[in-house]
Design goal:
The chain is built from six helices and three strands, in the order αββααααβα. By secondary structure, it is mainly alpha-helical. Strands 2-1-3 form a three-stranded antiparallel beta sheet. Strand 1 and strand 2 form a beta hairpin. Helix 1 runs antiparallel to helix 3, helix 1 runs antiparallel to helix 6 and helix 4 packs antiparallel against helix 6. The relative contact order is 0.23.
Length: 162
């Protein structure tokens, strides 16, 4: 009997939307300088010579590259879990994928919220940085995706179906 299949699919859709938000919101303001200049968050992931985020100034930063890669891998696992949740059986596998993606997005959320200490040496500390809304909302979406992935994973894994 498929008693939790609809709930797992609905939670899966919400999780995928939150994951997409966690990957897209770093396109917004990642940091605000003391002079009021906005710097896009992904500049610190991929580098941007115009913003001064290049190898001469210590960028791109490995911690933020790791956050992006973990989010991409977690989103892939969530998509796989969503696809497998439509079929008959395989609920334990869906549960494992959801829990694994939850762990990956938890790490991503932590790294997004720690973005300011990660880029502490940006321009040799001559510029004061404040965490912008891009990293804050992306971290919140990654944290929400992580929590919902854990819940969905437990529901799927505890399912009586094979």
């Amino acid at each position: 009997m498929k008693k939790n299949n609809g709930l797992v699919i609905l939670l899966g859709l919400v999780i995928i939307i939150l994951s997409a938000c966690a990957l897209l919101f770093p396109l917004g303001t990642g940091f605000v300088t003391g002079e009021g200049e906005n710097i896009v968050a992904y500049d610190f992931v991929f580098g941007n010579s115009a913003a001064g985020v290049n190898s001469d100034n210590g960028g791109p930063y490995g911690g933020l590259i790791t956050a992006f890669v973990l989010a991409c891998i977690g989103a892939f696992f969530q998509l796989l879990g969503m696809v497998f949740s439509f079929g008959q059986g395989g609920k334990k596998f869906v549960g494992v994928l959801d829990v694994l993606s939850g762990l990956l997005f938890a790490a991503t959320a932590i790294l997004f919220f720690l973005a300011k200490p990660i880029v502490n040496g940006y321009l040799d500390n001559t510029v004061t940085l404040t965490l912008g809304w891009g990293f804050i909302i992306a971290g919140a979406c990654a944290a929400a995706s992580s929590l919902l992935s854990f819940v969905t994973g437990v529901i799927s894994y505890r399912s009586k179906e094979a």
